Amino acid sequence: MSTSLELPPNVLAPSTARRWVESQGTVPASRLPDVVLLVSELVTNAVRHGPPESTIELSITASRGRLRVDVVGGSDYRPGRGGPGSGGGGLGLRLVEILSDRWGVAPGPPTAVWFEIEML
Description:
This protein is of the alpha+beta class. The chain has three helices and five strands. The protein has one domain (2-118): Heat Shock Protein 90, CATH 3.30.565. It has a five-stranded antiparallel sheet with strand order 1-2-3-5-4, with helices on one face. The two termini are 17 Å apart.
């Protein structure tokens, strides 16, 4: 099962994305807070690093006991693994690394960042 949503790259995109994920019913309740947080982080990155005329595509795919989330948008952003004050950004991608089972980046433009969780 797969579903997707297009978002404008504005300050409302992260909250719209969070509400949409919560409404889909595809994320196990035990992992919903983590998935909502990670979606919010990735959509925020796409808003911050993308051109204002672009759109952001958020998709969720559930298959074989696994949930995959893709966020496509933004320019040729290449995320670093810094942290606050390092010049590499905040902790968003570090959270993705910690809370997901797998994740990755396909450089753009547009950049695609994805993560997977096992649905237990």
